[in-house]
Design the sequence.
């Protein structure tokens, strides 16, 4: 039974996460990391595939693909609508959409994280659940007792953003990832309470 969820987010040095309902940077390594994390049912397999000093994936890494077990993603309505139609729903993941009001035209659309987590808890095929944005959904997720880990891609630049990641609620510490950027343009980190 899956009763916990994680947050996954990429942000700039000012905690910027978006501009005009889109991502203001193009970092292919981060897109691959996001896909690997949210698709592969074995999180430790993904973490162990990245060298923390260079953020490069170890060569020849093949991740376990969904089979009996699959991951779920939770996103807000605006994030859902920002996805190109050919990627809606995100493939190889169970997609859930959170909206203030019911949206019958959107599959698996609910009005609270608790509703979604209730559905997920009854689905034995779901291994991991990730909240993938946007800002309002992150804010709600940060306050939720089911939050387990926060995976942050920290980008060593400042972008022109109009949407920002909220302040972390509670005490979190980095449990995986490089402590500083050194010569990196970005770094993957994991935060836990």
Sequence:
């Amino acid at each position: 039974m899956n009763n916990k969820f994680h947050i996954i987010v990429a942000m700039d040095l000012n905690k910027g996460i978006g501009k005009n309902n889109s991502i203001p940077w193009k970092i292919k390594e981060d897109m691959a990391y996001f896909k690997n994390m949210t698709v592969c049912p074995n999180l430790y397999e993904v973490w162990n595939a990245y060298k923390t000093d260079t953020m490069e994936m170890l060569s020849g890494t093949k991740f376990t693909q969904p089979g009996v077990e699959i991951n779920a993603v939770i996103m807000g309505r605006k994030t859902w609508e920002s996805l190109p139609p050919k990627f809606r729903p995100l493939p190889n993941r169970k997609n859930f959409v959170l909206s203030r009001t019911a949206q019958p035209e959107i599959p698996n659309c609910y009005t609270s994280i608790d509703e979604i987590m209730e559905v997920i808890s009854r689905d034995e095929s779901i291994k991991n659940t990730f909240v993938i944005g946007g800002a309002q959904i992150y804010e709600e997720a940060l306050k939720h007792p089911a939050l387990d880990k926060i995976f942050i891609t920290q980008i060593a630049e400042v972008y022109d953003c109009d949407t920002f990641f909220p302040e972390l609620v509670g005490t979190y510490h980095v449990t995986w990832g490089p402590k500083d950027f050194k010569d990196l343009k970005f770094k993957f980190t994991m935060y836990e309470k």
Notes: The chain has one domain: 5-50+65-192. The domain at 5-50+65-192 is CATH 3.40.430.10 (Dihydrofolate Reductase, subunit A). The first helix runs from residue 28 to 39. The radius of gyration is 16 Å.
